[in-house]
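Thread: "does anyone have the structure for this chain?"

Original post by V.I.:
We have the sequence but no experimental structure in hand. Need at least a predicted one for the grant figures.
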Amino acid sequence: MLLKDKVAVIYGAGGHIGGAVTRAFARDGAEVFLTGRHHDKVERVAADIAAAGGKAHVAEVDATDKAAIEQHLADLIAQTGQLDISFNAISVFGHLQGTPMVEMTEENFSLPPLTAIKTNFLTTTAAARHMIERRSGVILTMSSTAAGLSGRDRVFHTTGGFAVACTAVEALSRTLAGEVGKHNIRVICLRSDALPETWPLEGRPPEIAEVEKYMNAGTARGLLPRLSEIADAASFAASSRAAAMTGTILNLTCGSVMDSN
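Reply from O.Q.:
Generated one for you, C-alpha cells below.
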C-alpha cells in the first residue's frame, strides 16, 4: 500500500476533491484526519472510509483560523505521534468566475486570492513546523488551470480573482518547498482542470453543455479529468514513490495546459 502507516490531515475533506483524495489516502493505507466546517459532509466521507475498513477521524476546523488549525494538529500529534501528509482542498470561491474584472466588485475579486493565501499559508506552515521536528513529510496544495490558461481561454472563462488565487497558491508552494526541502519535507501543488463531476446536476444553465464541449476539446486527451484521477495522483505524490518530486506543479489537466512543470 502506497501510504501504509502514514498519518494524513485533509482540510476541506467534505468537498468533492477533498473527499475523493481522503478516500484514496485511506484506501492506500493512511490513517486520515478529516476536517471541515460542515460536519455532516465530512462525516459521510468518514463513514465510507470506515465501511471500507479504513481509519478515519473527524473534526470541525476552520482552515482560516490559526488557533483552530494549530490546536487540531497538536491533538493529532498527541494521538498519533506523527504527521506525514497535509492536504488543503478547501474551496476558494471559484464560482465567482464569469464576470469581467471591469464589471466586478472589489470584494468578489479579492475574496478568492485573500482566502487562498490565508488558508494555505496557515495550514502549510503549521504542518511544516511539526514535520521539521521529525525531518519528514509531504505537503500538498491545490490549484487549477486558471493559473496557466492561454489568452484565448482567459477571454472565454473570465476567471477574475480565482486565477490570481491559483497563481498565488502555486507560488507559495514553490517558495515553501525551497525553505523546507533541507528538512526532508516535500511540497507539491496539484493543478487540475475543471471536473464536471463536481458541477451541480440541477439548475445548470443551458449553455453549460457548450462550455463542457469547449473545455473537453481544449485538452490533449479530448476529455477533462475525473475526480478519481486527481485522487490517485495525490496519493502517488504523497508516497515515497514520488520522493524526488518537490517544488513543482503536478499537471493534472489532461493536456489543456502544457508547460515545463
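V.I.: this helps a lot. Residues 7-252 form a domain with the Rossmann fold fold (CATH 3.40.50.720).
O.Q.: and The two ends are 27 Å apart (CA to CA).
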